[in-house]
Batch of 3 targets.
Target 1
Amino acid sequence: MLSILVALIPGIIALVWQFGPGVLVQIIIALIAGLLAEALVLIVRKRNPLPSLLDGSAAVTAVLLAVSLPPLVPWWATVFGVSFAIVFGKQLYGGLGYNPFNPAMVGYAVLLISFPRQMTAWLPPLEMASTTLSFSDCVSIIFHPHNALSFDGLTQATPLDLLKTQLGMETHLDEIQSARVFGGLSGKGWQWVNMGYMLGGLWLLRRGKIDWRIPLSFLSGLYLIAMFFFLFDSSLYPSPLFHWFSGATMLGAFFIATDPVTAATTPRGRLIYGALIGLLVYVIRSWGGYPDGLAFAVLLMNFAAPTIDHYTRPRVYGHGS
Amino acid sequence: MFKLWPFKGGLRLPSHKQASSLAPLQTMPLPKQLIYPLIQRNGSISQSLVKAGERVLKGQVLNSTEEWSIPPIHAASSGRVVGIQSFPLIHPSGMDGPCNVIEVDGLDESVEFNGFADYRTVEPQVLLDMIHQAGIVGLGGAAFPTAIKLDPPKPHRIDTLVLNGAECEPYITCDDSLLRHFSEEVLSGANILMHILGVNDCLLAVEDEMQESIAALETAQSNGDFRRIKIVPVPTLYPTGGERQLIQLLTGREVPAGGIPAEIGVVCHNVATAVAVHQAITDGEPLLSRIVTVTGQGVRNSQNLLARIGTPIAELIEVCGGYTDSVQRLIMGGPMMGVALPSDAMPVTKATNCILVAGQDEVIVDKQAMPCIRCGDCASVCPVELLPQQLYWHVRAEQLERAMEYHLPDCIECGCCDVVCPSHIPLAQHFRSAKTKVTRKEQEKAKADHARLRYDARNTRKLNEQMEKAEATKRKRELLTKMAENHKSG
Amino acid sequence: MLAVLVLSVVFASFGLILGFASIRFKTDGDPLVDKIDALLPQIQCGQCQYPGCRPYALAIAKGEADIYQCPPGGDVCVKALADLLGLEAKALHSDLGQEPPKRVAVIDEEKCIGCTLCILACPVDAILGAPKFMHTVIASECTGCDLCLPPCPVDCISMEPVNETLAEGYWTEPAAGLH
């Protein structure tokens, strides 16, 4: 679990570099809320909270959720999301190992549905920001959201947001992508964050901490379907690489979908599981109601994981072909 | 290069073999006592043929020997029978059982042994009986009667003999030692086995790390007529020494679930068994001794010992310089599949390949197990491609039928899943216990079905008796009425 | 009017199908009784207040008997029955005694007078003997039901616990606390 937190560091550095230190404040809030929630539930369940707190799973959930949130989301949203993730997403099912759904994504989905306005208010990346926020600015905005009014142009649509709304208005893709927020592989800022996560993820793979099948099949699935539509009509559908380095792709591929508790467990099952998440992410991004679809794609596939496992049992030695 | 067919999963484990393999093979001095459990593989108790006070000679049969499934046990030296005493058995149950105890007189007088100068002139059936009479069982650890294995059911055509010299559990080096010191006997035994089975191919698997053994075998091979035997170095990967895994590795064939290797044309024997067969056929000498590895941090000198079967383990430890201060646990077998021994009073049996005197760092501490996080590491190391975590799930919920659907009986209990489990769940132990439960359930079911049959049969019988009785009464009444009528009319 | 006609035809045809099915797919005996009987331990001890396992199974199937009346079957049996019948598993009926250990009847052959009363009582014909001759129990057939104890006029039958042998399984579960 500790290595997962370590592997998140490059992504977090990129987040801080591009979107200011708000994410650090969120991580601190989430950690405190997550560990408190975990300890409280365990005490209510009359269990010793120490082993669970030390296994790091609550911390991982908290940090994963914190880095998925817009950096300046109000503190109560973070606290609510993390507590919901730990209590309803994990402990009510019996704690670590028994939860069918990825707790961080449960928290994220609940927040997104409950507070859509706050949850889509992302900051502009470094290159476009009109103001540079200091750590204390972030703290003050997170704890007193109306302080944000004193800053100008603080929030901005993400590239995925923009894409969705503009395509809805039948704007040509080239025109949309000429907007300042796009650039490089995907969007300014976002590509660096995704690269940071990818770096951490590759390190995890190298260390053997995560299974290679899910990231590989997820990214290939996303790439293939994106490539198909891109070749079909490149004026409507952005390139596969745009999808790879947008939104939460890399975070999802290496850190969220690979959560062993909620993923499929058989070798073939994991390939199917990852690929289907990739497809779902694309489907939700392209035709769904939300700009990014990782949380819903993962949760939907969590539902399907036991069935996938059931139909992909490996052939046991001596049982014919 | 011989083509290998690697099996899935498996683990590279630290070997810990240096300590015992570097020391020379030592022959144990005559023990003071010899102890022979009367319990058999299938749990039945065999009849003792000797009485307390009787003098027995080396090579004399101690128990009754009617069935091939119960090979005889021979006294390994001459002495006086003390009688039948209760000793703890080498068995995970830790139960006590009756044992024949012999006080050794030191004369080592022997019955006369007669072998065949040329086995090729002898019918295989005669040789098989000789192997049974010599009390030979599989010396790899499972102790399955060798004669039965060499006489597979008729429909199966055997084409390959596999000799297993790949002891892949860490610490154990008894086969390595045997291959180095008895290489010629191994090859000669292989020839005899091939003659009995009527096959022309023999694959002798040796771990690739056992270079000296391979060299010794190659030298021996060039000195005699052993052309049909192929020496195959195999990777040192646990559990390559498992019969099914080795057969898969060498031939690419899989033993059908619940079946025996003969079904796919293979018979597999341990190299030590081949040596025992050689001695039984050419010298007429029954199985009296075997090589035992004594090793671990808990014993002063790790080494291989040529010990008489029946020697108390305590005497082996003594010859190895006794216990060190760090001794923690006695294990028979290797660290992965061995059985913990409650004391060192019990004897070396035909199945004793290794006495691991585990020290502080070697005992697998029972760590507090954490919940399963379904990481799937267990599935990736399982050599039979089970899904241990799903199995574990069902076993814990006592859903034995579901566990059977996930092929619980195919688990070879190698313990690879235990080693890699990040939550320290003792998976193999759970599976063994579940298998036990399944067996018990099946036994109970069989007993209940039998009782039901007898109950039904009794009810039918009683019903028939009643009906017959009613019939008889009716007939009697009719007869009486008739008689009365006759009387009236008459 | 038409609706009534159509409905009548539909329902009549349903009736025909059902009637046909009940003849075509008729099963001999009551499969439920067999299923229940298969779960009972077949000790035939009568502790359930029925004269044997099958009568008890019949009574359960009819709904006359409860599922927690079989002490030899123990909680395992209650659970299995509850699973089969979709009922809630309960603890064993306390009046009927606890789950006994496995036992086998042994006749003290010195004392036996050869009265054959036990032979008549044995539900599985596990006692061998003739009038005025010593009787003996065939241990492998004995279910340990205790029914031969009361009729014996000289109290020469005792119930001995069955020792576990190595032939049975032997691996135990890992210690508690280890998952």
Target 2
Amino acid sequence: MGKLEIMKAGLVGLSMCLAGTAVADPVKVGMITTLSGGGSGLGVDVRDGFMLAVKQAGNKDLTVVIEDDARKPSLAVQIADKMIQSEKVDILTGIIWSNLAMAVVPSAVAQGKIYISPNAGPSKLAGKGCHPNYFNASFQNDNLPEAMGAYASENGFKNSFIMAPNYPAGKDVLNGYKRFYKGELASEVYTKLGQSDYAAEIAQIRASGADSVFIFLPGGMGIAFMKQYAQSGVDIPVMGPAFSFDQGILQAVGPSAMGVKNTSHWAKDLDFAANKKFVASFQAEYGRLPSLYAVQGFDTASLILSAMAKADVKDTEAFRAELKKIDIASPRGPLKFGNNQHLIQTIYVREVIKEGDIYTNKTNGVAIKDHQDAYAVDCKM
Amino acid sequence: MTVALFAEQLLNGVQFGLMLFLMAAGLTLVFGVMGLINLAHGSLYMVGAFACAAVANFTGSFWLGLGASLAAAAAAGAIVEIVVIRRLYNRDHLDQVLATFALILIFSEGTRWVFGSFPLYLNVPELLSGPVSLPLGVEYPLYRLAIIVIGFAVAIGLYLLIAKTRLGIRIRAGESDRAMIAALGIDIRFLYTVVFALGAGLAGLAGALVGAIQSVQVGMGEPVLILAFVVIVIGGIGSIKGALFGSLLVGLVDTMGRFLLPWTFKLFMDPSQATSIGSALASMLIYILMALVLVAKPKGLFSANA
């Protein structure tokens, strides 16, 4: 027994020495995300996806502090200050909404912290405002709508009614659609962020004579719009980026969303081994199907874990270089960072279907392969 | 712009206004009779929506759900009144705001604990689904028409209750002089519980009705609560008639503003900019309206104690 104890102690000591040479310090991640109020489903999925990867890795050197921003920019800024100054986190992540990201990210990266976005991808941080400490593991806001615009043009739509909330991501999304869509615009409408009644907008759609409706209404806004649209009797086809037709909200939308085409950088049925494993393990862990937000959270954590294994987080330059390699098995398949540290990834067209009792999406095909955002050229990195 | 579009937008404004009225009526009644500022009114709206969704999903009947929403919200209101609110009548408004704000947090987290963070499914019943054709070539969702009918029915019902019944007489007496009606031997504590439960029930009904066409999720009540406060400030605090006119005014101004302002700006501006500025201005419109009303009539349009 005595000898065994000594040996054990020696082994532990040895492994600590080894750890000392490869990864010196533990990594502390601060996650600021939306866990209460409207849109909390998105934050919960990002968190759950992130924590799934952490749990699977079982790396004791990684600690995660999670706080709720309640979708309020002022609160997110306060939490970020606290996490940087008193919690001394090395990496920040978690923000869902572009307006919150714009409030937090520029100052956090200027203070030398690494920020990895698991959801928001405002254009301002992709172009001139790019930063060596800012990585985007989700999408640039324009990506999915660009793919939808390309799809609409290819499928002969010539007169679109386009609508989004009046905040940075809403403008990025409509610009993205217009960049790849070649037809006419019946009308362009901005709504209030968090708006729940779309009667006035649906009346305009009815009167507009459009042949297609493109919407970007994430979370509860999309649920409300789709239900009201189905009741209105207007039958112009609706399409949009995946955010309004995602796993987290489809059950609440119900039959109103059947058959809607949407573009996404991930789908449940993508044929990658890592994807099958991810979907199965997420379902086993949480008892529900994952959403694209969960995938983004999962990939963000995988990125941090992969970089931790090879570099010390205190050596920012080396750590960033490891992050940039994306040495992970993503459910999205192969990923690559562009010069602005935003992803070059394939965007798919999906369609809402019903599998048994569950509403979900099936992949119809590729919209744009290896797509890079339009702002990368403005980034001097 | 066609006549049909304009008429449809007017109907939308009226429907939105009447939905606000269901919220504002309870809020103004509670403030008028008990002098209480109840920030948790939005939570009762949420309770109604969740009760309706849960019962409708369980039994498959929206109508049972609607009944359950009234009952659950009224019961929640009565319990809250007896356990918490009763202690606050003699405190100042700041204490009431603090306590009822705490109730919002308790209701929100409690609902999340029971139902989870993801929105619930609740759809319009078969009977009221789809659009109907109205004169002037207007196509309008039947369900929204039903909300208009229910809203007016509740307004008439409340008028009859307050003007014609014994309970109504007591409520009006309570508004004018609390001490006196207690001295006349009326059980004022019971009266307060009834009024609070009535207001809560109306909020729950509104939540259930709206839940069918919006999303049933935690935190759905607070945005409506803010509008309901705007309504009762415009209408005159404590006045049901004021709440009705205030609601219709806010509903129409908000809906028509969202529709007409961007359209007007497009006449002399680049469309993309026009919609952006127009919609930003439209979201401020009801607050501008409130400020204007307060300048002209500091106590609101139909102040109860004027």
Target 3
Amino acid sequence: MTRPIRKIMVYVDGSEQSITAAQYAIVLAKALGAELCALYVVDTRALAELVKSRIFLEAEQDEYRRDLDGDASRYLNHVRELARRKGVPVSTEKSSGAVHVEIKAKVTELGIDLLVLGEISQIRSRRDELYNETERAMRNAQCPVLVAKGEDKIWDLYEALE
Amino acid sequence: MALIDLIEESVVRAPLKASGKEDAIRELVDVLVAAGKITDAQTVLRAVLDREAKGSTGLAEGIAVPHGKTAAARELTIAIGVSPDGIEFGSLDGQPARLFFLILAPPDQTGPHIEALAEIARMSRSKAFCTSLVACRNPAELVHMFKDE
């Protein structure tokens, strides 16, 4: 039987939840002998929205874009380090645009078999449901999606990994 | 983290006592000090006023979103103020601002900072919701309005 999960992608946005998701993806990749990829998306759609609504000045948009690029490198490096400690190879991808759109596109482009996401904030309104990027990625991705819940258990699994 | 998770009665001032732009910002900064969200009020105030000096964050429809990136905020933080009479804020449409969202974040939390601002930008498009918020007479009503939305 062909292995059902050969390529795993984890979406990292710098939140604690996404780092937990990365740890779980590392555990899964090792257990399944799967390839692992970590993705960070610079949310340029939100930046453009802020300029359009006049909350941001053009110069402010550029400044925050640079900050986000820095965040992308920092968080992807962090995932690389987490994976290195456990002897798991990981490739990293940085993209920019609307987060859920980019996640969906990368899943297709890279032939991902399983998308791992961090725990989703509680959805309290229809508006949350419409705009929460992780929620939208979960609904739109064209592959099985795993939401990594249970921070303590995942930490134990990651730490126990040899 | 969703914006709603940051909103609690201790970070809401309804109604604001201030009648001027700088005083309104100062009052919201003081709200955050009283709520234990920030400690260095002067640094925060300077960051927010420096940003305002480059261009008003007063939007249309009586909404203002003063914001700043400062290490004086340990994490993403919001204060909300309501001024039923309105405060001259140099807004786009020339109308006084009635609903104020002060957003602060440390320099290493750019992503959540942008998410929170974008959430407010989207919310500001709902005139009915913003009108309901301005009508709130105390913090409890406003928090209830958000949580119940």
